[in-house]
Amino acid sequence: MAEDILGDAIWDYHSGNYDQKVVIHSSLDEQDILPIPYLFRDYKAMPVLEQKALELCKGSVLDIGCGAGSHSLYLQEKGLDVTALDRSAKAISICSMRGVKKTVHEAILDFSGTKFDTLLLLMNGIGLAGRLEDLDEVLVHLGSLLKAGGQILLDSSDIIYMYESDDDGGYWIPDAEGYYGEMTFQMEYKGNKSETYNWLYIDYNTLQRAANANNLSCELVSNGEHYDYLARLCPLV
Fold it and tell me: What is the pTM of this model?
């Protein structure tokens, strides 16, 4: 994104200058608030699905879309060899300031050359695919970053609940091309706006089909409290 809205807000919070909220505008004609202090939470304040994912991490770990580095710091303190990756230069700087030893400032699709035992994509990190039609490319690339016996841990949500339901238990989804979990967002902070960007929320069954089509197994590790879930993907042998 041309404007590094999230990086600016993370930087301001860490520097003690955070006095405005990050507003999220979505394609559902809704506004939401991204609580930046939440990105600095410790393990005890993390959702159960995130805690479970962190406990399942093994070996060398690539924390994709690391943000302020809270997951990386926890894994590092556990003794794991973790690398924090984010496309935001300011987020990566804050990770280093907070004590993350290994960082990479790069978009995941541009990153290559190193393989890991665990790829971690939390807070709906798989959303970076943007659209369902682009998920295959992302899964193939992620698979290329795995060592033998490696795993991809990710959480996402089935956002069908955001649409109106009928008496028969079905849902009214507006006529439009594409998958209902495809969203567009725009961030706003201190009068600056990001470019509009695509983001993907994917139901588990659709994820499983996409994973299998790209030579990855897909295991439902755990369901969350509200249409969210944690999945583990591994190369098929």
Answer: 0.93
